[in-house]
Amino acid sequence: MSVIGKIVVPNVSARNFAKINAALQTVKSNRNYFTYTQELSQPLDRKPDFVTAKEAFEKCLKSGQTVYAQGAAATPVPLLNAMTEVGKAGSLRDIKVVHMHTEKEAAYVAPECKDIFR
Q: Which terms in the Gene Ontology molecular function aspect does this entry carry (predicted)?
């Protein structure tokens, strides 16, 4: 008896074992939907709006919100700078910025932003 994966196969020659094992590996590797199609899983019926970081924050940033900032080397410094500009210009208050640790300077921790960001 031979065991292939979790399947027990009686009296399999080495040649047939290799064929069965190759077939099982093919089945295992093709379990992902995206291996055989390039179509979006949720296609849009319209074109997306392309905006600058500042325009995006002007549309959605409000007082009292919580903003999560990715940390380490993936810190989106241009986005955080745009958020700071919009916060200052829009007279926003009490925006909580949550992150682990960020790299580079953070404009939102400047003394003039103490009432805008926490």
A: acetate CoA-transferase activity
Q: What is the pLDDT of residues 15-69, one digit of tens each?
A: 677 777 776 666 555 555 555 566 666 777 778 788 999 999 999 999 999 999 9
Residue 76 sits in the same domain as residue 109:
yes
Distance, in Å, from the CA atom of 45 to the CA atom of 102, rounded to the nearest integer, reads 37
Rounded distance, CA 107 to CA 81, Å? 6
Q: What is the pTM of this model?
A: 0.61
Determine the Cα–Cα distance for residues 88 and 115; give it in Å rounded to an integer: 10
Structural domain that includes position 106: 53-113
Kindly report the number of other CB atoms within 10 A of residue 102's CB atom.
Answer: 19
Judge if 101 and 68 occupy the same domain.
Answer: yes
